[in-house]
Design a protein that fits this description.
- Helices cover 37% and strands 16% of the residues.
- The protein is α/β, with parallel strands linked by helices.
- The strands form four sheets. A six-stranded parallel β-sheet has the order 3-2-4-10-1-11, sandwiched between helices.
- A hairpin with a 5-residue loop joins strand 6 (137-139) and strand 7.
- The radius of gyration is 23 Å and the shape is globular.
Length: 410
């Protein structure tokens, strides 16, 4: 089992990465595994990342693509190198890698929370039902799925991924046709220690996953970090929150004048968003940029399925090779640090299947903190991270209210 799991929960700009780099440097006799969302932080075996640039004396290695990154990682870990990898590679690790990490006494640093529990949507619900009816997968009393190796011992068809996830105890059935992927805690438990760098950890699905697996963790806040209250005060002074148009506000009120809290959620877009509405929303956004926001560069987001429908004049053309559209859950990127306008068109909720699945095992998801965490991370992609004035248009009344409350809470 992991000796200790520590959570450094600090607002963006407090100095988390600087602290952890100094911490690793001061403990250079240990072996380190650094995990970050982006190659710009970890390098890719050919190009140096931030960790190689700022900690050259620790000689962090990144797995190469030959023969593949997993095999390359095994060689590096077996040789005892300090290693930097991305989140995506971490998710693919096996029991064999866990054994190597444990034998060589690695210490793990996780930059931003990992997605260790999710809805597995690479298969249609009807195909899930077919697998069950064909007795290829069977549900255990606790909901975990097992592959039927008795009847399908040498299976090599299209569902080998499902078989492999079953064999690693990573797949669970929810509601009869929804697959939930729960990454086993093997890798984290194999390390001597684990340090997680994040913000609003309580609202994350990684916290839910850790509670689900009975993993104990402690919060800490090094003295060298900037106080949260100091940064929030600057954000309050520099963030210009733009009031949406009457059309956008009216969408969020029912016939009795009561607030509709789910407008601009993924479900709302799926059920109600149409071409006519898209034109009106685009027109409203363009007017806000021209009349109520600064003349600088704009970055924006929506659910990817509706990106083309909401693209409008003044906020969709790439400048300097940088695409202004940003995935709503982007974290830890500095590409947009000079962008002074932000358009936020989503109302964030955790997947209802995940919420129900976790609720069934008495793990609670804080929906508002989950939404706020994603919003705060997104805003700090822009120039507010440099404490410069930034204009912000949030379409959803719920998301705007969550942000306003957060900023005024001291």
């Amino acid at each position: 089992m992991t000796k200790k799991i520590m959570v450094l929960d600090a607002i963006c700009g407090a100095g988390k990465t600087t602290w952890v780099f100094n911490h690793m440097r001061a403990n250079s006799e240990k072996r380190w595994l650094f995990v970050s969302p982006y190659l710009s932080e970890t390098g890719d075996g050919r190009i140096k990342g931030r960790i190689q640039t700022e900690l050259p004396e620790m000689n962090f290695k990144s797995p190469s693509v030959a023969p593949n990154k997993t095999e390359s990682f095994k060689r590096l870990a077996s040789a005892g190198h300090n290693i930097a990898i991305t989140h995506s590679l971490f998710h693919s690790f096996s029991m064999e890698i866990a054994e190597i990490l444990e034998q060589n006494e690695y210490h793990l640093v996780v930059d931003e929370t990992l997605e260790l529990i999710s809805v597995y949507d690479e298969i249609e619900k009807q195909d899930v039902i077919c697998l069950i009816k064909a007795n290829m997968i069977t549900k255990q009393p606790n909901g975990m799925l097992e592959w039927n190796h008795t009847e399908y011992p040498n299976y090599s068809g299209r569902d080998t991924v499902i078989r492999d996830m079953c064999d690693t105890k990573a797949l669970w059935l929810h509601g009869g046709d929804v697959l939930i992927q729960r990454v086993p805690p093997t890798i984290i438990n194999a390390c001597q220690s684990c340090t997680i760098l994040t913000y609003l950890f309580e609202g994350s699905l990684m916290r839910c996953w850790m509670d689900l697996n009975g993993m104990k963790y402690e919060y800490f806040y090094p003295d060298s970090l900037r106080p949260e209250a100091e940064i929030k005060k600057i954000v309050r002074e520099k963030l210009r929150i733009v009031k949406p148009s009457k059309y956008i506000l009216d969408l969020q009120i029912d016939r009795r004048g009561l607030e509709l809290s789910n407008i601009f959620s993924a479900t709302w877009y799926k059920d109600y968003f149409d071409e006519c509405m898209a034109k009106k929303l685009k027109s409203s956004i363009v007017a806000h940029i021209q009349e109520n926001m600064g003349k600088g560069r704009t970055f924006w987001t929506t659910f990817k399925k509706y990106k083309s429908s909401l693209e409008g004049k003044g906020y969709t053309r790439a400048v300097g090779g940088i695409e202004p559209f940003v995935a709503k859950n982007m974290r830890a990127s500095n590409e947009y640090a000079d962008f002074t306008n932000c358009i936020y068109t989503v109302n964030v909720y955790p997947d209802v299947n995940l919420v129900q699945h976790l609720s069934n095992v008495d793990v609670k998801v804080d929906k508002n903190m989950y939404a706020l965490s994603e919003l705060i991370q997104f805003l700090f992609r822009g120039c507010i991270r440099q404490h410069k004035e930034m204009h912000l248009l949030i379409l959803s009344n719920r998301m705007r209210a969550l942000l306003m409350k957060y900023l005024t809470d001291v």
